[in-house]
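Input (structure):
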């Protein structure tokens, strides 16, 4: 640790090296985030090429975000024990190979498997990159570095839809994955020169492999049950076996973690209303946000017949609205706590989803999509940041990494489950393309509005009052979100 500290407090030359280190880590995180929203825009093209139908289309995103989200806690623990640079480079390597395999995929199964490999690489790379930032920067420099990390997380979604639209419009959807290869190669070379070497040998003892496998398998079973329920039937044996089996697996995971000396997650921390309630609300906020991107993209391309590039450009107002909401959240929460602002934010999001539920076969972007996009985007921008503040404020210093990992896990898994549910509802009309697809998409927007409304009620019922929360927040400046 002293070596890392020495790296952060030296001469002007060191300042240049610190900037280069931060740049490498931010580009790596941006690459990880882009591969969610960029693929969102390319879904109709991918579905056409690989003959994807119904809710199976969503697995192009779900197979990535499910593995990514469910292994983030494990990735953070691995970075601490095995070495941050080692795990960064390992994750980067796995992500790169999987990107190449994704680009070459000729069948749906091959693409889903390759995307799962990308998720594994991202789950190892992202926590390691954040851990390197936390150790290499101190004081005000750390605050600036974390702010930049958070900005990349927010801007990545907007950049992703533009990049995905341009590549799909002018080349081919496979370029979304091919473009990762030269970027990853440059990152690997730079990381070997710039990222500080690990000071200790790998320590394999303490890695909770059983917990990681159990959590991932259980969550995968639940998502599979949801996505296949429309075809198999919500009351079918398949849906019950996978759904109830997944829930039982999560209960077993909780029991296992309570008996593990070095758990991925200290389950008892969920008893804190800001942490446990915040986790549920993060699942709802991220699920709504991911669903908003997916359903809007499907409507613009499959119903209105827009191309990938024009669809990407159409998301710029949504990204701006969400960014304004995210910026406002920190100021509002600092004065009024999280309970009231979150309840209001979710109700605003519900209003936006209600506007979007009016989309029809002959709708237009300006009249039927843009107003709801702006309202829902603003509300969800406030919600995601406010929930992060709620969760992170409940963390003691010695568990800040674990709680931060929980926050990021909730974000990714919420998005995964949201995409699974809303795409299944959207496909319920029996059509995913053409004017007739509008009915299913409208129903999915109604479901999203109901979810946001329920989340608003939960925020009022569960989260701590401002007079208890605000003093705690002022004692915990590190609670400002980094994802």
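Output (sequence):
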């Amino acid at each position: 640790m002293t070596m890392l500290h020495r790296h952060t407090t030296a001469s002007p030359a060191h300042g240049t090296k610190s900037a280069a280190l931060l740049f490498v880590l931010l580009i790596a995180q941006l690459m990880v985030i882009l591969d969610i929203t960029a693929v969102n825009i390319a879904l109709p093209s991918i579905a056409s090429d690989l003959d994807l139908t119904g809710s199976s289309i969503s697995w192009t995103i779900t197979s990535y975000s499910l593995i990514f989200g469910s292994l983030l806690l494990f990735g953070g623990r691995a970075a601490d024990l095995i070495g941050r640079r080692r795990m960064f480079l390992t994750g980067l390597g796995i992500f790169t190979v999987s990107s190449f395999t994704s680009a070459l995929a000729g069948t749906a199964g091959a693409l889903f498997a390759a995307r799962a490999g990308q998720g594994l690489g991202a789950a190892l790379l992202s926590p390691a990159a954040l851990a390197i930032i936390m150790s290499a920067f101190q004081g005000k420099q750390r605050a600036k570095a974390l702010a930049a990390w958070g900005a990349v997380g927010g801007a990545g979604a907007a950049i992703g839809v533009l990049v995905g639209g341009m590549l799909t419009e002018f080349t081919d959807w496979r370029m979304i994955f091919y473009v990762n290869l030269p970027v990853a190669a440059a990152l690997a070379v730079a990381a070997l020169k710039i990222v500080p070497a690990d000071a200790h040998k790998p320590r394999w003892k303490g890695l909770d492999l059983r917990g990681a496998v159990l959590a991932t398998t259980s969550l995968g079973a639940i998502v599979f049950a949801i996505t296949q329920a429309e075809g198999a039937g919500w009351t079918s044996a398949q849906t019950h076996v996978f759904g109830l089996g997944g829930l039982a697996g999560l209960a077993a995971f909780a029991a296992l973690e309570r008996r593990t000396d070095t758990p991925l997650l200290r389950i008892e921390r969920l008893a804190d209303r800001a942490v446990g309630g915040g986790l549920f609300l993060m699942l709802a906020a991220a699920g709504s946000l991911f669903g908003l991107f997916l359903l809007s993209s499907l409507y613009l391309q499959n119903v209105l017949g827009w191309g990938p590039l024009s669809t990407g450009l159409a998301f710029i107002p949504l990204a701006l609205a969400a960014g304004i909401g995210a910026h406002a959240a920190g100021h509002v929460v600092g004065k009024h706590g999280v309970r009231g602002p979150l309840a209001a934010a979710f109700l605003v999001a519900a209003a936006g989803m209600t506007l979007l539920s009016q989309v029809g076969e002959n709708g237009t972007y300006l009249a039927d999509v843009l107003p709801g996009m702006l309202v829902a985007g603003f509300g969800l921008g406030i919600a995601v940041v406010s929930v992060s503040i709620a969760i992170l404020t409940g963390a003691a210093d010695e568990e800040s990494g674990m709680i931060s990992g929980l926050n990021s896990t909730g974000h990714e898994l919420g998005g995964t489950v949201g995409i699974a549910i809303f795409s299944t509802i959207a496909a319920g009309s029996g059509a995913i393309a053409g004017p007739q697809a509008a009915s299913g998409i409208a129903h999915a927007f109604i479901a999203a509005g109901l979810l946001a409304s329920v989340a608003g009620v939960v925020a009022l019922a569960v989260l701590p009052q401002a007079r208890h929360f605000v003093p705690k927040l002022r004692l915990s400046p590190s609670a400002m979100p980094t994802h």
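Notes: The first helix runs from residue 2 to 8. Residues 1-13 have pLDDT under 50 and may be disordered.
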